[in-house]
Structure to design on (426 residues):
């Protein structure tokens, strides 16, 4: 299965790159922290090498031994996995649900650094994320230029034209999800060309397209809102780099077109799945745009910094996003987060990992309704924007999945197909 290939090949490759990154920063650690920095680097490398060996030799998944705030929740989850293994001994790397062991690996990578001050805050994936951003410069310039030109006459657009622009920017944000470093094993995966040029050609590859439903929801919410009651959109972020910029452009459009009044961004509290967005990545991206020597890029950066200062954009993270639980457990495991999302008019979930957690990462029949696969996770109307990079997909028309499968056996894991899949939460 694709899960087997991931655990056998991709995850060890990601760990090897993390070890290599620490090696390369040895002098920097020495300059900043002296011998203590070098000792911490050695300990972190030894921890990651041991982890890689456990993974490759299918050792049991062991409880977390660190004192970090989420350790107890992880160990409870591991106990549940033990009970599920029907007395077949301990859950191990190749004998456990893929979603669990993959999340567990990233949590252990975090522990390798967090337990080794003074380099505890070092993000082993940071360089890859920065590289993705810089290698996507042309696409970022094209998108910022398009958007700033659009803003000049946004007030003159009629409803039909506004809808057309929303659909365009939704698609850019959708296809931006192809730039995923955990999928490429940390290898280069940037957006090289202008993302706006080929949108028409890509439409047939959107196999669930609920953009009309999003438009109806937002326009109706706008009509129903009052001065006291504003329209709030939440976006559960995925990758840093080009995808994050495409998300920021989309959300700025929602504000300037008056389809939304406030946007909340939800990122990861620790480095995750190689290229997922943390608070540092979010702030760094806006700073890079601000200081860019391109007029429209810096205009975007300055404007977005202003949105954060005014509080119409809010960035927040929560431990739940980096737990192994699927989202049907949120109300129980993180009731504060669930209650917060219930205040939203629309929650946009970006990317593949979010989709796997929304649907419990199960091998569903293709035609099972999305609403059913969400397994009672309905805090607010929600929508998944995702390119397919793992083999779970629901909500297709009868025969649709089988038809694509016949001509493209790898269709579910190639990133070539995408969905804009909506659930009204009723």
């Amino acid at each position: 299965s694709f899960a087997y290939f991931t655990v056998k090949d991709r995850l060890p490759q990601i760990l090897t790159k993390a070890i290599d990154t620490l090696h390369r920063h040895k002098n920097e650690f020495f300059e900043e922290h002296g011998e203590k920095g070098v000792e911490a680097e050695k300990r972190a490398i030894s921890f990651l090498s041991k982890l890689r060996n456990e993974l490759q030799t299918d050792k049991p998944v062991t409880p977390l031994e660190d004192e970090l705030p989420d350790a107890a929740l992880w160990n409870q989850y591991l106990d549940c996995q033990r009970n599920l293994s029907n007395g077949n001994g301990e859950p191990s790397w190749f004998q456990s649900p893929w979603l669990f062991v993959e999340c567990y690996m990233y949590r252990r990578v975090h522990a390798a650094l967090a337990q080794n001050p003074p380099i505890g805050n070092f993000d082993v994936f940071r360089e890859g994320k920065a590289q993705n951003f810089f290698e996507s410069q042309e696409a970022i310039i094209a998108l910022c230029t398009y958007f700033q030109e659009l803003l000049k006459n946004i007030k003159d657009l009629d409803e039909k034209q506004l809808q057309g622009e929303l659909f365009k920017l939704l698609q850019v944000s959708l296809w931006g999800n192809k730039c995923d470093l955990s999928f490429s094993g940390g290898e280069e995966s940037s957006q090289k060309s202008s993302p706006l040029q080929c949108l028409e050609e890509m439409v047939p590859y959107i196999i669930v397209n609920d953009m009309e439903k999003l438009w109806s929801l937002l326009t109706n919410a706008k009509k129903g809102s009052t001065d006291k009651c504003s329209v709030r959109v939440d976006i559960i972020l995925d990758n840093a780099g080009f995808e994050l910029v495409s998300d920021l452009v989309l959300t700025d459009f929602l504000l300037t077109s008056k389809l939304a009044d406030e946007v909340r961004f939800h990122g990861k509290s620790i480095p995750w799945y190689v290229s997922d967005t943390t608070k540092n990545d979010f702030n760094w991206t806006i700073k890079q745009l601000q200081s860019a020597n391109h007029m429209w890029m810096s205009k975007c950066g300055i404007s977005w910094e202003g949105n954060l200062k005014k509080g119409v954009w809010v960035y927040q993270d929560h431990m739940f996003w980096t737990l192994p639980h699927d989202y049907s457990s949120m109300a129980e495991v993180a009731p504060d987060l669930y209650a917060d999302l219930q205040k939203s008019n629309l929650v946009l979930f970006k990317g593949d990992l979010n989709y796997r957690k929304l649907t419990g990462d199960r091998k569903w029949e293709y035609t099972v309704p999305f609403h059913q696969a969400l397994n009672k996770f309905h805090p607010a109307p929600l929508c998944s924007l995702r390119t397919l990079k793992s083999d779970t997909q629901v909500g297709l028309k009868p025969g649709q999945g089988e038809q694509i499968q016949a001509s493209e056996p790898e269709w579910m894991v190639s990133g070539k197909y995408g969905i804009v899949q909506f659930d009204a939460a009723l």
Summary: The chain has a mean pLDDT of 95. The radius of gyration is 22 Å. The chain has two domains: 2-115, 126-423.
